[in-house]
Design brief:
Helices cover about 15% and strands about 35% of the residues. The protein has about 400 residues and is an alpha+beta fold. The strands form five sheets. It has a six-stranded antiparallel beta barrel. A six-stranded antiparallel beta barrel has the order 5-6-7-10-9-8.
């Protein structure tokens, strides 16, 4: 693939209005308005270019103003990059899509006049992202949106070797995918325990932003445990790491490292228009998901089938003021079940609209994210004990989560 082709960015494959503009960092990135979330595929359609004009390029970058760490080894980051860099790969994904022509274009008379000016019936869509090697025989971690719908996946190592990649599995709920290439004795990364990281620790990102291969940036861990809803992707099930290490389109799937040179996360998204707001999937989540993808090619996500609202005095007042609401709320804390989905595990267990969850598995809860976290960590078919407040009385029901319905 030529350099000019690799530098191409994306046209939108779909947008969704939200309060922030979150951008997934594969080559499916597209610049959108200040109040939109771009949740797009990884594949870009030629002949889009990375920079519509030079003025737009800086606004897409996430810059870190963090000072250089005061360390006894001033070349520590360079040493880490030298060690880990060969394990970070470039991923080029492409697919051919059929475009249906309007009926008038099928008319032979029309074709006679327009000839080669006819729109093509096939279009090539391309995208670029990053990944990292986890086993010497060629298993690679990346984001699901980097390879979504791809007919062809090409993996290029830092030493210039290129391999055809096979997607072993991809999970859109956590945005994790595993690729396999036919190679041996490859350099691999070392993994850390992402549960142990703390805000303020140093972080290093390596990837291929905007077609610039093997780019290194550094910053700090700005926060941990950012919920999918906080970040602007409520359909995902990830508690993100937030970092101000500069990451950009094309960084998707690349590693976020600590100062031991260990992977602590997979770089995934930025909030457009913000400075120093990048998000990574914790490596502990990645390990759990990737192991299932490697074993079975798919992932089961425990699902109750309820819509939840975290209660507060203001939320209680707003709900009770709504004349169309079929129930009223007496509680000012806990997790309100606003709706039980028909035929869901929750409905089968007897949960009702207006119930308030006060504990799950004996653990007190005050926020919907706490309930979601416990459910996600459970397994399909496992009994979960929910303590509810219903009509002023507490009762306990057992629910058996099902597998989350397909989002396709």
């Amino acid at each position: 693939m030529s350099k000019s082709e690799s530098d191409r960015s994306a046209r939108p494959m779909g947008t969704l209005t939200k309060s922030v503009a979150l951008v997934l960092l594969g080559a499916g990135l597209v610049t959108v308005g200040p109040d939109a979330v771009a949740v797009v595929g990884s594949l870009v359609q030629r002949p889009a270019v990375a920079f519509p004009d030079q003025a737009e390029a800086p606004s897409m970058a996430q810059r870190s103003n963090a000072p250089i760490p005061a360390l006894s080894n001033p070349n520590l980051i360079a040493d880490i990059v030298r060690e880990v860099g060969p394990s970070v790969v470039r991923i080029d994904a492409s697919r051919t899509v059929q475009s249906s022509l309007p009926p008038q274009f099928q008319d032979p008379m029309f074709r006679q006049f327009f000839g080669n000016a006819m729109p093509p019936s096939e279009q090539l869509q391309e995208g670029v992202g990053s990944g990292f090697i986890t086993t010497a025989d060629g298993q690679i971690i990346t984001n699901a949106h980097v390879v979504a719908g791809a007919d062809r996946v090409q993996v290029t190592l830092k030493d210039g070797r290129s391999f055809t990649g096979e997607v072993m599995g991809a999970d859109t709920v956590t945005d994790i995918a595993v690729i396999k290439i036919d190679a041996q004795d490859l350099p691999t990364v070392r993994l850390s325990d992402s549960d142990q990281i703390q805000p303020g620790e140093w972080a290093i990102a390596i990837g291929n932003p905007l077609g610039l291969d093997s780019t290194v940036t550094a910053g700090i861990i700005s926060a941990t445990g950012r919920t999918s809803r906080e970040v602007g992707v409520p359909d995902k099930r990830v508690d993100f790491i937030q970092t101000d290490a500069a990451i950009n389109p094309g960084n998707s799937g690349g590693p976020l490292l600590n100062l031991n040179g260990e992977v602590i996360g997979v770089n995934t998204a930025i909030i457009q228009g913000a400075q120093g707001l990048g998000f990574s999937i914790p490596i502990n989540t990645v390990q759990r998901i990737s192991s299932q993808l490697i074993q079975t090619g798919r992932v089961e996500h425990a699902y109750l089938g309820i819509q939840m609202v975290s209660l507060s005095p203001e939320v209680k007042e707003n709900i009770n003021r709504d004349p169309n609401r079929p129930f009223t709320v007496q509680d000012e804390e806990g997790v309100l079940i606003a709706r039980v989905m028909p035929n869901s595990p929750a409905a089968q267990a007897g949960l009702r609209d207006g119930d308030v969850i006060v504990a799950i598995e004996g653990q007190s809860v005050k926020d919907g994210s706490e309930v979601q976290r416990v459910v996600e960590q459970s397994t399909v078919g496992q009994n979960l004990s929910l303590t509810l407040r219903r009509n002023g009385q507490e009762e306990t029901l057992n629910v058996r989560p099902g597998n989350m319905p397909s989002q396709s």
